[in-house]
Amino acid sequence: MKIRTVRHNNRKKLFEVRTSTRTLVFPFSKAEPTPTTEDPITELFVDPEAGREAFTYVLGSGRTGTVHVEQALEYNQDPTYLRDLLLYQLTLEAQKRIAESPLSKREIVRRLGTSAAQLYRLLDQTNYRKSVDQVLSLLQVLNCQVDLVVRTKTA
Fold this sequence. Notes:
The protein is of the alpha+beta class. It is 35% helix and 23% strand.
């Protein structure tokens, strides 16, 4: 996701990150180094070297920091980002389980009732067009039990 513009709001002590679809906030306290009234932001820009997916700021002391758009998405609990993160983690676990499995890939394809090409798409951690239930089916074939745990966040 590319950043269009970024501004800082000293009164609210946060960055306002505008993308093509929404505006996200990111508090100064989550940034490293942290801007303060003693060490304020002197320069702020969308970073072209990061493919416009991050912004960089310079403090009065000369220290610089960079914040990636994914940090802002995670802070704002963006549901699409959280889904993609879950899908990524499940895919990595499936890759690990396939490497350890005594089953051949042909047998896994047969049990899934799909094609070899589809299996490779399921195992591609950069493919976010697959569904969570497809990866769960793969893990089931690999004799894995997946438990979903919901807990209260800790500070």
